[in-house]
Design goal:
The chain is elongated, with a radius of gyration of 21 Å. The mean pLDDT is 97. Helix 1 (3-16) packs across helix 2 (22-34), helix 1 (3-16) runs parallel beside helix 4 (51-65) and helix 2 runs antiparallel to helix 4 (51-65). It contains 12 helices and 9 strands. The protein folds into 2 domains: 3-66; 89-274, Rossmann fold. A 7-stranded mixed sheet has the order 5-4-3-6-7-9-8, sandwiched between helices. The chain has a two-stranded antiparallel ribbon with strand order 1-2. Helix content is 41%, strand content 20%. It is an alpha/beta fold. The protein starts with a helix and ends with a strand. Bound molecules: glutamine. Glutamine is lined by residues 91, 93, 97, 118-121, 123-124, 182-184, 206. Glutamine binds next to helix 7.
């Protein structure tokens, strides 16, 4: 079996299974299994693969055709230019979330303490710590499995952070200069309309924001003042229709509230600083 023929059969199977990015995904899996670069492939598509590689590739193509996300098959997703390990216990980091990290980085300074609530893979906390030295970071999640992944990512990136298993602030005991969060914010009813990759394979607890999608914002906005230092900042990722509701919640305890749009021009981040 050659690289070229194997790729062709992978593409055909994914197309048949109606995988949106069938061509790209078939290629990424081939690259993952054989280690072959695009350049090497284009020069020598007739290169033979081993039987083991062929078998492994076919298994992965089959899994992908069941709509298991590519990132869970290869175990990685890039975020803020860094590579994060992921599996089915954590949400796959989204490009939109980079807006939250970028906004926080404009504000964060040496020596500040940062808390990332619902840390999942740890992508928000760890990229902030990696890109801005001199911070002290804590990641909180309800899921022990997720915290295991976040710790693994911390080690891979060669940085130090603290992780805490807690239902939101229940076990948080300190105050922070900055709280970041991308909480679950999809309305329960809407979950069943999402693409199969998300709906069947990403952790429901990382997505489900209860009936109106705003459940975690209510709890976070209400409780966060007790966990912030004076003038501390709260940064929240939001769904594109949630800015008004979340800003409204924040008005009581926060000032200088801003809404930031993502690259598609949709509201994506809300932040503000604690009133004195
Ligand atoms: N903080 C993680 C992320 O943004 C996980 C978010 C979540 O599980 N809701 O990818």
């Amino acid at each position: 079996m050659t690289l070229g023929l194997l790729l062709k059969s992978g593409k055909e199977k994914l197309k048949k299974a109606q995988i949106a990015e069938w061509e790209l995904d078939a290629w990424f899996l081939l690259e993952y299994v054989t280690g072959c670069t695009r350049h090497a492939y284009l020069l020598h598509p007739e290169q033979e693969v081993t039987e083991l590689q062929e078998q492994r590739y076919e298994e992965l193509i089959q899994k992908r055709s069941f709509h298991i996300p590519l990132q869970y098959l290869t175990g990685s997703q890039e975020f803020m230019g860094l590579s994060f390990f992921v599996n089915e216990h954590v949400l796959i980091p989204r490009q939109d979330t980079e807006i939250l990290v970028e906004e926080a980085l404009r504000y964060l300074q040496d020596g500040m303490k940062v808390l990332d609530m619902c840390t999942g893979s740890g992508c928000i906390l760890l990229s902030v710590l990696k890109l801005q030295g001199g911070l002290c970071g804590t990641g909180v999640d309800l899921s022990e499995e997720a915290l295991g992944i976040a710790r693994k990512n911390m080690e891979n990136l060669g940085i130090t952070a603290e992780f805490l298993q807690s239902d939101l602030f229940d076990r948080v005991r300190e105050r922070y200069d900055c709280i970041l969060s991308n909480p679950p914010y999809i309305c329960t009813e809407e979950l069943d309309t999402l693409m199969e990759e998300v709906r069947f394979y990403e952790p429901r607890m990382a997505l489900d924001g209860h009936a109106d999608g705003l459940y975690y914002y209510r709890r976070l906005v209400e409780q966060s003042p007790d966990y912030l230092t004076p003038k501390g900042m709260l940064f929240l990722e939001i769904g594109y229709q949630q800015a008004e509701a979340v800003c409204g919640m924040m008005e009581k305890d926060y000032k200088d509230i801003h809404v930031v749009k993502d690259l598609a021009g949709l509201d994506r981040v809300v932040y503000g600083s604690l009133r004195e």
